[in-house]
Amino acid sequence: MSTNSVQQLLTKLYRNSLIFQGVLPRPLGSVKGKIATFQPGHWTDGFWPAMLLLGYSYGKDPVLWDEFQRYVPMLAERVADDPEINQMKGYLALDHDVGFIFHLTCVYKDLLEPDEESQAIGLKAAESLLSRYNEAGAFLKAWNDWEGDTPESRLDKQGKMIIDSLINVPLLFWAFHRTGKVEFQRAAERHVETVQKYIVRHDGSTYHTYNFDPLSGEPLGGRTGQGYDHESCWSRGQAWALYGFALAYRYTRRKDFLDTAIKCADYWVTSLLPSGDAPWDFNAPRNERLPIDSSAMSIAACGMLELWKFTGEQRFQDMAIADLNRLQAAHLAPAFPQAEAFLLHGTVGPAYQRGSEEERMFNYVHANQSLIYGDYFYFEALLRLHNPDVLLPWDF
Question: What's this model's pTM, rounded to 2 decimal places?
Answer without folding.
Answer: 0.95
